[in-house]
Amino acid sequence: MAFPDKPIAHLLGSNGPVHALAYSASPGTYILAGSSDRSIRLYNPSPSTSIHPSSVSSSSLTTNKKRSTSPIIPEGRLIQTYAAHGYEVLSLTVSSDNASFASSGGDRSVFLWDVARAQTLRRFGGTAQSHSARINAVAFGGESDSLLVSGSLDASVRVWDVRSNSLKPVQVLTEARDAVTAVAVRGPEIVSGSVDGRVRSYDVRVGRCTTDVVGPAVTSVCLTRDGRAALVGGLDSKIRLMDRESGGCLKTYADARWRNADLRVQSMLGGKEQYVVVGDEMTATQPHPPNTTTTTTSGEGRLWAWDVLTGELKAQVRVPWGPAGSEPKKMVGRDGKEKERSNVISCMAWRENGFGDQFCVSGTSGVVTVYGYHSTII
């Protein structure tokens, strides 16, 4: 099964970079996108028409006549916008029944939303027992999604009871020595990644914490379906597949051309756990060799995909800034010189937790690009 490297839809509407993406629970019909503009948008990636009129300008039509090899990518449908956050949205998680979702961000609060009514059901934050800094990650947990687990810049993990009227967390985990950047929940286990270079696994049944030392600051954690391994992204331009029982590294994924040393860039497992997929701090602005007819769109993002078992690089995919005609304009830096805007790919999600037939990515462009296998009908 080849890696799906062709865009099948663009999701528009954000007025700033997108920091968080999530598919609805199975069958994963919808996509949620959390933005720096403080809003969350719900999309159906299926286009409203075969070619969305607003995605095509007269100039792009002329361009496409000249370049028949550049197909027009349709737009998905914006269904609903959710607004309550006072700062950027940094994380999203969807309940298993698709009736609710939770979001967290720069306002130190976790919001629980009613999907259909587009209203907040609960807000966990704003008290002395709440997080004291931005919340980087949130995940549902517990029986029937009765709990929410959040990880924060304040170096703590907090567990909230969705069914209780109390605004106090039911548990506070403070073993981390620096910001918590990622959380994952599997049954009675909570797994967190921290800038202190550790991945911690908490078994809430027995109150035990197991710490695995990775080394560099951890930026993302993705558990395998069987829970026996964890994919860990770090700020040393490497991704590691860690054995959760022994704490050993099963495989390392890296490339001299791929960089993740400064920013929080998400990595994930996809294609039924056949691929390791990650964004890139760098962008596809490198010039092509001389005497070639290939053109380069400045500021394009990049995706990388490795084979999970062999570690072989299977795909390097260029991510367009957005629909034809929406390429970024140059901006003037503090030094007065023009600079290209870069589409850093920092967040992603794969339908049905990596086992579906499509995935989506976004970053600084604010446009969500959806990729799918050729059998996908949208």
From TrEMBL:
What are the recorded Gene Ontology BP terms? mRNA splicing, via spliceosome
Tell me which Pfam families the record gives: WD40
Q: Where is the composition biased (Low complexity)?
A: 45-63
List the residue ranges of the region (Disordered). Answer: 44-69
Q: Where are the WD repeats?
A: 11-44, 82-123, 128-170
Check the record and name the SMART domains matching this protein.
Answer: WD40
Kindly report the protein's main subcellular placement as a broad class. Answer: cytoplasm
Subcellular location per the Swiss-Prot or TrEMBL entry: Cytoplasm
Gene3D superfamilies xrefs: YVTN repeat-like/Quinoprotein amine dehydrogenase (2.130.10.10)
Q: Which UniProt keywords apply?
A: Cytoplasm, Repeat, WD repeat
Any one GO CC term of this protein is: catalytic step 2 spliceosome
The record's section on InterPro entries has: WD40/YVTN_repeat-like_dom_sf, WD40_PAC1, WD40_repeat_CS, WD40_repeat_dom_sf, WD40_rpt, WD_repeat_MORG1
- What residue ranges carry the coiled-coil annotation? none
| Membrane-traversing stretches | none
Family membership, please give it.
Belongs to the WD repeat MORG1 family.
The protein's name: Uu.00g084820.m01.CDS01
